[in-house]
Amino acid sequence: MNPISKNKKNQSLDKLESIRFLKKKLAVNPNDIAIQIEIANLYAANNKFIEAAIYFRKSLSILYENEDIKKGLCFCLIEIGNNYQANRKFELAKITFEEVLTYYPKNSDYLFNYGNALFSLNEFEKSIEAFKNSINNNLLEPDADTFNNLGNSYRRLGKNADAMNCYKKALKINPKLIHSKVELTHLMQYLCEWEDIDTYFQDIRKHINSKDKGKVSPFTVLSMPNFSNNDYLRVASNWSKQLKIKSLSKLSATKKNKLTIGYLSADFRNHPLYYLIFDILKNHNKEMFSIKLFYSGPNESSIEHEAFKELGHEFIELSNKNDAQGAQLIRNHKVDILVDLSGFTQNSRSFIAAYKPARYHINWLGFAGSMGFHNNNPLFDFILADKYIIPQENISDYAEKVIYLPHCYQPNIKNRPKLYPKTKTDYGFNKNTFVYASFSQSIKITKKQFDIWLKLLKNSPTANLWLLESNKLYKENLWSYAKRNGVDSNRIKFAPKVLIDEHINRHQIIDLFLDTFPYNAHTSTSDTIWAECPVLTLSGKSFASRVAGSILKEINCEELIASDDTGYYNKALELYENPKELLRIKQKIIVGKNKSIIFKPDAFTINLEKIYSDLFTS
Fold first, then answer.
1. Cβ distance 269 to 298 under 8 Å?
2. How many CB atoms lie within 10 A of CB 446?
3. What is the DSSP string of 145-200?
4. The domain that contains 453 carries what CATH number?
5. pLDDT tens digit string along 382-406?
6. Is residue 6 part of a domain?
7. Which three-class secondary structure string do you get for 252-313?
């Protein structure tokens, strides 16, 4: 033991001994305020903030206007509240910060902490009020992080213009605040507001390749153009560096009659994941595998959420536990293979894998890329893919070892919506209109992509473009952009949000589904193929840009995969001008869809279970 550590240990022991001595004196004279205050100070100096707060409160109940005691108590309460916040005890954090604010209701820092607790509890209206009060009571200078967090609250309520204004104010105060720049850029993509966006893309890419490696959310960059696989890997690894997690003791190999497979997700609910994974979970061989579902998402009353709970597998809530507690719970359940189905997305608990609670840890379906390194080791041991999504030459771009599924990496549920006849007039189109469509999220539509679509409209006089309705500003921005570039905005229509059966069926009137790049349509590609509609995609090198191509390859329609913008545009125009070729492809899709494994989850499950078993026999 080095002398510094020894001295610190001795100092702690001295303080604890002093506390014991003073408590004996206080027992003799319980009204001695000086002793109470000294005990409180000693507890605080020894990081025993809950105990210190008790004695500060006792002292303050007598000397209720003493500023030093108030400040001492509030210091302890802030430490207590921040600890609750860090350990996902958000309700306790909120209550603690509310107590602090009874003493200093206009303290900017305290209001900021209170706002963060409210945000974590999804009380966004209240968090907005707290952050605004923090800004208004800041006597020194405007705080960039407060504007950033205010923007986050506005965005959660769909108040996008207010959110954008807050992010811009944050960056005006601190132009180097990378998380505000990322949030602003991501929001601009969502709204298809492209003025100066290329500059933001360049700044973010420059940042992640610099020595100043501030954290950038890995999910946000997947839809940003001109990022390489190395960029994505670097972002994921830098994201992991914000935490230094010591793994649990290594599990020893033991012979078991059944392997225990744990699936970790925030999306066992009304979410696209349902339409991919539900039948896999339903079809698992219960004689060979014990399945446990670890859920970290919100509590909701949807049919899908209840269906996951009723599968007959153990359903375990993790949302109220911190990562260390979640990892220990998974360890207690003796999980052999932990499969993360959410990755770095909202409500993700992927850092649980850093504790290594299972024998093996697999990244699959939820995140379209590598989860990176943590403490120089892969956060996840394996990633499930297919040979199209991750070609052999790209394996080194992933932290995980790649396990190849024998077919397309993406499963689907078998009982998809039944198709019933639909016509173009049902949706307000002329029966002779050629319908180009893209039902991807607005955040996936880049300026470059939209320029290609506008060029298609200019050269396809009887065509309309049909997009998924997302938000009002996005529609107005696209209409305005089209007008400025010589395309009548009336030729761009928006499909409202509807129930899943109706949504799948309306794909039937689409002549050609136009995929997005660099983030493809994933579940939406399967939806479109199920409705027997051609999907034209562009494949790049990244995982996210190759998913649609993987699905098309599986159904033997590789002629719909372009390798560059020119090929993408030319193929779309060719299919517009050649109805016979378009019909041939549609018929080919019907054959391929019925032959492929994509909509046969029972066969897919057998292949998946072989992979799980092989991990323990190889």
1. yes
2. 23
3. HHHHHHHHHHHHTT-HHHHHHHHHHHHHH-TT-HHHHHHHHHHHHHHT--TTHHHH
4. 3.40.50.2000
5. 999 999 999 999 999 999 999 999 9
6. no
7. CCCCCCCEEEEEEECCCCCCCCHHHHHHHHHHCCCCCEEEEEEECCCCCCCHHHHHHHCCCC
